[in-house]
Amino acid sequence: MKNMLNLLLLACVLCTYAQDIANEGDDIVINVPQGKRVIIKTQNEKGDDVTMDLTTMQQQIDNLAKKIDEMRFVTVTGDDNEFPCNEEQTGQLRYNEEVQVCNSAQWVAVAQSRLGSYKNPGGSCSSIKAAGDSHGTDTGYFLQEVGYDEIVEVKCDMSGSGSLLGGNGQTKKNPSDSCRSVLVDFSEDPGVYYISTTSPPTELTAVQRYCFFDENGKSKDGGGDGSSPKEVSLSCEVIHKQFGITTTGIHYVVSDNGPRAVLCDFSGDTVVDVGSTGTDRAHPAISCSGIRQHLQLSGKYQPGIYFIQKGEAVVEIYCDNNGDDTGGDGGDSNFPAKSCQTVAAFTKNPKKSYIKAGDSYKVVICRNGQEVPVGDIDNPATDCQSLYEEGIRKSDVYYFQDEAGVYAAYCDMNDGGGWMKIMQYGSLDGNMTTESVGNIATKDVTNGLSKFSDARIGRMQQKIPFKGIFKFYVPESGVYNYIQTSNSFSYLQRGLGISSLNNPSMVCSTTDSMSSCTGAWLRNTRPWLDTYLWRDSTGYRVENTEARVFTDYSFAGHCYNNVVVGRCFSGGVSTDHAPHNQFVMFYRPLWVG
Fold first, then answer.
1. What is the CA angle 45-48-49, rounded to 5?
2. 40 - beta bridge partners?
3. CA distance to 11, 124, 127, 179, per residue, from 158 (Å)
4. Contact status, residue 281 vs residue 255, Cβ threshold 8 Å
5. Strands (E), 12-170
6. 171 three-state secondary structure
7. Along the chain (593 residues), what's the average pLDDT of each consecutive run of 10 residues?
């Protein structure tokens, strides 16, 4: 078809040229030697060089005439029924007051632009398709609505129903169906375009969206201006740079959990996403100060617990009245609390907590906003010695914990400190048992036997494996006896198991304190426990006249030679060794050497 039109055009040009010569009334005769050509070189209106070979022009005219003769060219008058245009007649020329060509659907003027072109915009995609002027693709069509001067470029479904697929998004009246269509199908530059959320796209559902290419060259929808969840934006940066918004305020930006309302701060040189209000984990804030700035816009800020984004984690943080971050609930060393008062905002119950300490943290027990001292029932210590090392110097009842649980005990912080009372008696005999008896967690010596179980005392000894000091104190005499031993305590054994001829211990007796035992420790050679066990007050050995803390002459626990089921603290066979009325035993897991 194109070649045929070119031939017609050339014929018209030649005819016109010949007519111009004839009108001048002049004959121009040029004699050209055989084998030579006549070439005319000139310039056209645009200044382009033009070359014409006159020698071959006649041959071109003859060829053109031959091709015109071969054309099916008819002349018709009247309506189109005389010579209808259909698929079979595609490309057929005819003359009907003008030269026309069949485009398979209708006769159109040869010089007329196709329907749907910019010069001849269509009224709809379907009218272009019905007119047979689709050109094999869905893009490159132009429409003009009746009554409007604006001509818009659109995409039409020419392989299907001929419906409108969308515009190039340049105006709200011509929205596109996607950013991909804008950037790829219409080859527009990245920027803000109108995108419709319905199919077909309509002005009523058109919203502005930022369309761009990502680092991989893929078209992306960067969102709207953030004015509503419907027009959610990719970021505060996009809202500012692409939509030109300069007033700090609340905008909606995308997140993994859908649109989230954030405060975009445009007041500085750089755009700052202050974050959400942090009222739920799905929409965390960036900082406490951001929450305060955000909520103050509506006058709703209150100190409290908010969700803050900390790196990859979302953490519950207490924000105070000034919008300062006072830390988490103290349960994570990575996000320590500022103080126990911060922890109290989460729970007033006793809780092991990580508290800020400079650039690091310390581990404490918080209860009702206060730090619980070590040795409290909610913050039990390991033993009296550890309390002493913590700086606690008051002799009192404290709480401790071992593998069996929490228990109370009395600590004597004198005499070097760290002494735990493990057994005492006053006047009455005691049962032979390895279990605990009575209440040992008292300062004063009470009547009867009180003691920890052998198992608990054994656990104390295991802290520094079976190396510790037992202290025996008889209040009525003011004498302190010390046994430094690796023997295991056993209430049922002779000498409580700690005074043994098989594994002698180091002993010292004094009326002062253990410090006076320096250089005075002796090797014990007796299997029983005496009051003046190893030396008298003058330093000389007393063999068989001293009073006893209890009577223990044989390997079985008994009252002298009268075998009974209990230990005799107050009686027995009459001898020269009278039992003392009161006796206290302490232990400290410290090996002095």
1. 120
2. 52
3. 36, 12, 11, 21
4. no
5. 39-43, 49-53, 73-75, 93-95, 99-102, 107-109, 141-144, 151-156, 164-167
6. coil
7. 42 40 50 70 71 72 65 62 81 80 80 82 90 84 85 90 90 93 93 91 92 94 91 92 92 87 89 87 88 84 92 92 93 93 92 92 93 94 93 96 95 94 78 86 82 94 79 81 85 75 73 83 63 45 54 50 50 52 85 51
Q: What is the pTM of this model?
A: 0.56
3-state secondary structure string across 435-492: CCECCCCCCCCCCCCEECCHHHHHHHHHHCCCCEEEEEEECCCCEEEEEEECCCCCCC
CB 460 within 8 A of CB 468: yes
CA distances from 557 to 101, 145, 496 (A): 132, 117, 10
Tell me the residue type at 339.
S
Half-sphere exposure of 6 (CA within 13 A, CB side): 4
| CB burial readout 264-281, b (16+ within 10 A) else e | bbbeeeebbbbbbbbeee
- In a 13 Å sphere around the CA of 71, the CA atoms on its Cβ side amount to 21
Q: Phi-psi category of 438—alpha, beta or left, where left has phi over 0 and alpha has psi -120 to 50?
A: left
CA angle 358, 363, 365 (to 5 degrees): 125
Task: Give which of 550, 548, 557, 537 is closest to 577, Cα–Cα.
Answer: 548
Instruction: Report d(CA 152, CA 168) in Å as an integer.
Output: 8
Pick the closest to residue 348 from 362, 373, 329, 321 (CA basis): 329
Cα 459 to Cα 89, 352, 424, 556: the distances in Å are 110, 24, 19, 25
Residue 370 tokens, joined: 């206060």
Dihedral angle of Cα 5, 11, 13, 19, to the nearest 10 degrees: -150
Q: Where are the beta strands (DSSP E) in 76-145?
A: 93-95, 99-102, 107-109, 141-144
Eight-class DSSP state of 130 = H
Q: Could you tell me which of 398, 407, 443, 405 has the C-alpha nearest to residue 424?
A: 443
Question: For strand 566-567 and strand 430-431, is the pairing parallel, antiparallel, or unpaired?
Answer: antiparallel
If you ran DSSP here, which 8-state letter would residue 126 be given?
A: H
Angstrom distance (rounded) from CA 305 to CA 337: 12
Pull the structure tokens for residue 188: 């527009």
Provide the pairing of β-strand 107-109 with 164-167.
unpaired
The whole-angstrom separation of Cα 60 and Cα 54 is 10
Q: DSSP class of residue 343? A: H
Strand 93-95 to strand 73-75: parallel, antiparallel, or no bridges (unpaired)? Answer: parallel
Nearest to 463 by CA among 374, 591, 593, 375: 591
Instruction: Tell whether omega for the bond before 200 is within 30 degrees of 0, i.e. cis.
Output: yes
Q: Parallel, antiparallel, or unpaired: how do β-strands 99-102 and 93-95 relate?
A: antiparallel
Report the 10 Å Cβ neighbour count for 562.
Answer: 11
